[in-house]
Specification:
With 320 residues, the chain is of the alpha+beta class. The protein has helices spanning 5-13, 58-76, 94-110, 160-169, 176-187, 193-198, 213-224, 239-242, 246-255, 271-281; strands spanning 37-47, 79-89, 114-122, 126-136, 151-155, 205-208, 227-231, 262-266, 285-292, 296-300, 306-309. It starts with a helix and ends in an 11-residue tail after the last strand. The structure holds adenosine-5'-diphosphate and magnesium ion (MG).
């Protein structure tokens, strides 16, 4: 007997809530932000074939669907509270649902982020999560705060997810162990939630890298009315990516996408505090450039040669 909509919700997506006043089961959920906090809200929509490959294991998909949303909260310096899940499924496949829920809740529990509601419908495989977080009023990290003279930082490493995608496309080939590592980066990104919160009051601007480093930094530059100069070589990359041809390294780090690292700016006088925040969060950060008065992004190659300016980001309506 096929699983009905309400049995499916009961069995896979109904969990007791601790922080919310009301979770799954009524017409609305009720969240309780602490006094003096602002609610931070973000939505991401993931479509099969567009944002994920049909070959991805369901538990990894469950992880990633929430991870990309938590990454947005991280970029704002917000603490996760809860989320809603919109799910469109071709059929109620229990093995798939079990894996998906396992990956989803494992990450949710690590971040104290409760599933409080959603909607379930039959249709092409698609997942839309809206996440809710809280941040002390006026302290959210925004894209608009970068100032000339600030340092530009990036957390973790860039480019592995893109390298994995190119491997799936057949454009590069990697030994099995290397492929597993970059595939994990693509399918199991770790949202930098602790780092985002630790950077409140230190970083002047922040964004998470979903569409590619250069493009996402570009959003910060435009919103802040500034520019930036950085050296391509300074961008942090994994040992696996560092073994690829230089051209691929540059492409993957600068415009790769799906990294879910934080790019942020901070005054040069606060380098020690940035380092302390990174240590506290247990995430390495690398200083990669500086903010200039002149608008645009300048990427320098060997011997300070201008490699590229204003690299483009992934755009669903412009990128083939
Ligand atoms: P309504 O008709 O009022 O929109 P539904 O009948 O669609 O409500 O859903 C019943 C309850 O189950 C609601 O509390 C809703 O938030 C919850 N729900 C539905 N789908 C999901 C899901 N995928 N994950 C979590 N909760 C869900
Ligand atoms: Mg409904």
């Amino acid at each position: 007997m096929a699983l009905g909509e309400f049995e499916l919700i009961d069995k896979y997506f109904t969990r007791p809530v601790r922080r919310a006043a009301l979770g799954v089961g009524d017409d609305c959920a009720l969240l309780v932000p602490a006094p003096g906090m602002q609610l931070a809200v973000s939505t991401d929509l993931l479509i099969e074939g567009r944002h994920f490959l049909s070959t991805v294991l369901p538990d990894r998909l469950g992880h990633k669907a929430l991870a990309v949303n938590l990454s947005d909260l991280a970029a704002c310096g917000a603490r996760p509270l809860g989320f809603t899940l919109g799910l469109s499924l071709p059929q109620p496949d229990e093995a798939w649902l079990e894996g998906f829920a396992r990956g989803l809740f494992a990450l949710a529990e690590r971040h104290g982020c409760e599933l409080v509601g959603g909607d379930t419908t039959r249709g092409p495989l698609a997942i839309s999560i809206t996440v809710f977080g809280e941040v002390p009023a006026g302290q959210a990290l925004l894209r608009s705060g970068a100032r000339p003279g600030d340092d530009v930082y990036v957390s973790g490493t860039l480019g592995d997810a893109r390298l994995a995608l190119e491997m799936f496309r057949g454009a590069v080939s990697l030994p099995g162990e290397d492929f597993d590592r970059v595939r994990r980066a693509m399918e199991l990104p770790e949202p930098r939630v602790a780092l985002g919160q630790a950077l409140r009051g230190i970083a002047t601007a922040a964004v998470d890298v979903s569409d590619g480093f250069a493009g996402d930094l570009g959003h910060v530059l435009r919103r802040s009315g500034v520019g930036a100069t950085l050296e391509a070589e300074s961008l942090p990359r994994s040992a696996v990516l560092a073994r690829q041809p230089p051209e691929w390294q540059r492409r993957c780090t600068l415009t790769g996408g799906d990294d879910y690292e934080l790019v942020f700016t901070a005054p040069a006088a606060r380098r020690d505090e940035v380092e302390a925040a990174a240590r506290e969060a247990g995430v390495p950060v690398t200083r990669v450039g500086r903010i200039d008065v002149e608008p645009g992004l300048r990427v320098l190659g060997p011997e300070g040669r201008l490699l590229a300016a204003d690299l483009h980001t992934f755009d669903h309506f412009k990128t083939p």
